[in-house]
Amino acid sequence: MVLAIDRRIGKHAILLAMSNEQEVSSLTIPVQWKSCIGKVGSMDSQKVVAAIETAAKREGIIKTEGYRETHALYHAIMDALSGVTRGQVQLGAVMRTVGLRFAVVRGNPYEDVEEGDWIAVALYGTIGAPVRGSEHETIGLGINHI
Q: What is the dihedral of CA 56, 54, 67, 6, to 10 degrees?
């Protein structure tokens, strides 16, 4: 099992999440991979999860029926949220809010085709008290096999 240097799925997800529209158009990801980007702002972590899951299903990143792919995406989202929230996946309950760009990337980052698809979720944006100007940058990444 060799991780191909130009197929680092997490790096591609982070770059997509951190890039503006002009920068996104210049990024190159492997042709056979699928990706989507979006934005979400909330004081409710459930809304963040729902926004990412909805976008991934709408864009055909994961299947709408069945559980396995949704489950893999959920774990990648939770890992990314854990990074954003420093291990406490809570927002409004502890008086903080987020404004995030997200990217979901699906593909095989390995040279061996039998390794199958993996999914990466990157979150980049701001977190802080629900008072404008009290936020700071944050980033999180989750990767899971499908």
A: 20
CA pair distance 88, 82, nearest whole angstrom: 6
Question: For the domain that residue 78 is a member of, what is the CATH number?
Answer: 3.40.1510.10
Does pLDDT of 42 surpass 90?
A: no
Give me the numbers of helices (H) and strands (E) for the chain, helices first please: 4, 4
Mean pLDDT score of the chain = 88
Amino acid letter for position 6 = D
pLDDT of residue 94: 57
**SS3 assignment, position 70:** helix
> Which residue range forms the structural domain that includes residue 98?
5-145
Q: Which two tokens stand for residue 4?
A: 């191909």
Question: Residue 52: exposed, middle, or buried by beta-carbon count in 10 A (0-12, 13-18, 19+)?
Answer: buried
Counted domains in the chain: 1
Q: Which residues, other chains included, contact 22 with Cβ-Cβ below 8 Å and sequence gap of 6+?
A: none
